[in-house]
Each structure stands twice: as C-alpha cells, then as structure tokens.
Specification:
Order of helices and strands: HHHHHHHHHHHHHHHHH
CATH superfamily: Amino acid/polyamine transporter I
Number of helices: 17
CATH topology: Amino acid/polyamine transporter I
Radius of gyration: 20 Å
Strand content: under 5%
Number of domains: 1
Helix content: over 70%
Shape: globular
Structural class: mainly alpha
Distance between the termini: 19 Å
Largest sheet: none
CATH class: Mainly Alpha
Low-confidence stretches: 366-376
Length: about 375
C-alpha cells in the first residue's frame, strides 16, 4: 500500500518553525525536568551541567533528522519509511503513531497534573485535560499553519513568564548553599544528562512532521538549533537558580521545583498565588505542544492509509491521548517514573536511532536510485 502525499496545504515560515522548538521542549520539561531524581540526585548541583550536556548532545543527534529533511524535501519521516522500506516501513510508521499517542497522553497528563496541584487543587485532572483537548483539537484541525501562528503568541508568553521568574529570583539567591561546580564525578554528570537528552530529542518531531511545510527550509537551520540551545540554557539556569533559592536538599525533594521557587519570590505580597500566574502563562504553550502531537499522529495516520484528509482523525486521536493520560500515568509518582524509564526509550528510538539507520541505508543506495528521486 503506497504512502500518500501529505494531505496538508499549510505553509509556515522559518521563524515560526524555529519558535515551535520552545513549545515542543519546554512546557512540562520546565516543571519536571529540574526536579527529576535522575538529574539532581545523580549529578547534584552539577545537574545544570547535565542539562547543557543533554541539550548539546541532542543538537548533534538531531543533525540526522535534519539531513533527512533536506534529502527528502516535502516529505515527512514516516512517508520516507514507507516509500523506501515498503511493508516494513508501514509497520514502523504504525509504531511511530503509537509513540506519538503515548507521548501525547503523557504530556497532557503531566501538565494537567501540574495545573491541578497549583491552580485547581480540588479539580479532578480529567476536566483540566479536557480543556487542553478542546483547544488543541481545534488547532490541530486547522493545520500546522494555525498551530504555528498560535505559537507566535504562546511561546513568547511562556518565555516571558520563565525569564521574569528567574530575574525576580535573583534577590533570593543564596550561593553559599551551593557546593563548587564540578563536584560530582564526570560519570554522574553524564548519567544525569540522559533524561534531559530524551526531552530535547522531542525537537526531532519538527524535522519529521513540520519541516516539510516550511517555505524556506535552508533559512531555518540556525534559528532551529539556536532555539534548542536556548531551551537548554533556560532549563539549566532554572535548575541552578532553584537550588540557590531553595537549597540543594529541598530542591531534590520537590516535584515541581519551579512552582516552589515562584512561591518564594512572590513580588506582590498581597497576591498569595503568584505561582498560579506563572503556570497560567505557560498553559498556551502546553496546548500548542499537545496540538502538535495530535496533528502529527493524525497526519501520519492519514498518510499511512492514503486518506484524502486527516481532520477526521484529529478528534478520535485527541480523545485517545486525553483518556489514555488518565490511565497511563495516573499520578505524580507515575509521571516521574515514566519520564525517566519510558520516555528515553522511545525518544532515542524514534528521535535518533531509526532516523540514523534510515539515513545510513539511504546513503548506501546508488545515485539516481529511489532515494535520490524521493523528494517532492
């Protein structure tokens, strides 16, 4: 069964594509990643270095997906798989869709849980996910162009909230709480980089799904990697400032350490829920991320089964992600375990491993073969 050309007529600019990096990587990561025991327990205060190592490594690994985007212009990565590997490509594409659905369920639950713990402690998490689902499904049905336009507002709003929080925390820093840098063994720093690496590899989704619709792909190279590096710097700075404000021990015991920092640095004394304000400005970016995952799953499924349009699949897949989030990771402890034990497996597999094998095989084909004629 041949893989159909992408049933999507939208087009995004290079800057819009690069800006989507922030929405893909940061929303739940900024809440949970600086709190993960896989980072702060293994690497301690040098967890901030682990963050940078993870971001730098992801930038190198994502060059593989980047090369494929240029080698097969106008085609999504699942299209490439089916085009070149036939039945095997179809099976792998099915697994790719399954990975997107599982990751969408995890991300929806992770951010929904954070909202429930801070803004709406008495509200069940499912209604919170349902709100995300409604908006994300609407955006996903409109296509990648609408998602990118929403992100033009959502990503700067999230970045403004995070940077403002870090600046306000400056007066509460107690650097004497922190041991000297490079106090952890190198092997622990590298082990602590494993979890951040998996989160940063999510940016490969853009190369797989969104880059076929970039109007000028060559102009997005530097902005794309610059935004990915900046996301790494922000997460590293968030961990460092959180440890300096709260202390290394308390930061290790916190689940959403950024939320606790927001409570400590409340700039308005009469407003006792400042952390809720910060999470509120991060909510739109989280919805954009959810929309990208729903859109990607629907688009790839439509391509796999040669459907004329993907919009009819958006709602069922969105519901599957939303409901799945309630059972896949039913609590905070499950979110932490899932992010350290499961996310790295499929993130490395689909973000680097499979694209690398595919690229090596395609490079091994003779010039003028099917790989050379695959672009459209």
């Amino acid at each position: 069964m041949p893989c159909a050309r992408a049933p999507e007529g939208g087009q995004i600019s290079a800057s819009q594509a690069a800006g989507l990096v922030f929405a893909i990587v940061l929303p739940p990561a900024v809440l949970y990643l600086p709190s993960l025991h896989a980072v702060v327990v293994r690497a301690g205060v040098d967890g901030r270095i682990s963050m940078l190592v993870g971001a730098g490594t992801a930038m190198l690994l994502l060059l593989v997906s980047w090369a494929l985007a240029f080698r097969y212009p106008g085609r999504t990565f699942p299209e490439m798989l089916v085009l070149e590997w036939g039945r095997l490509g179809q099976v792998l594409t099915g697994l790719y869709v399954l990975g997107l659905v599982i990751h969408g369920a995890f991300q929806a639950r992770a951010f929904g849980q954070a909202i429930g713990l801070t803004l709406l402690p008495r509200t069940p998490v499912l209604p919170i996910i349902a709100f995300q689902l409604v908006v994300a499904v609407w955006a996903a049905r409109k296509g990648i162009e609408a998602i990118a336009r929403i992100n033009v507002v959502a990503a700067p709003l999230m970045l403004l909230g995070l940077v403002t929080l870090l600046i306000l925390a400056w007066r509460d820093l107690q650097l004497d709480r922190l041991p000297p840098a490079w106090s952890a063994p190198l092997v622990d720093i590298l082990r602590g980089a494993a979890a951040p690496l998996a989160w940063f590899l999510e940016a490969g989704l853009l190369a797989h799904i969104a880059f076929p619709y970039v109007s000028n792909l060559r102009r997005v190279t530097w902005p794309y990697f610059l935004c990915l590096g900046l996301a790494g710097v922000l997460l590293s700075g968030t961990l460092w400032i959180s440890q300096a404000v709260l202390g290394v021990h308390l930061a290790r015991q916190s689940i959403a350490v950024v939320e606790k920092v927001a409570r400590e640095v409340a700039p308005v004394e009469f407003f006792s829920r400042v952390e809720a304000l910060y999470l509120a400005v991060w909510q739109p970016a989280s919805i954009v991320e959810f929309a990208v995952l729903i859109y990607g799953a629907a688009l790839v499924t439509a391509q796999l089964f040669a459907l004329r349009e993907y919009q009819s699949l958006v709602l069922p897949l969105g519901l599957l992600m939303g409901i799945g989030g309630a059972f896949l990771v039913p609590g905070v402890a499950d979110i932490i375990s899932f992010s350290t034990q499961v996310v790295p497996v499929y993130a490395v597999l689909f973000g680097f491993g499979l694209p690398l094998v595919f690229l090596l095989v395609s490079l091994g084909r003779r010039a003028g073969g099917r790989a050379a004629g695959g672009g459209g």
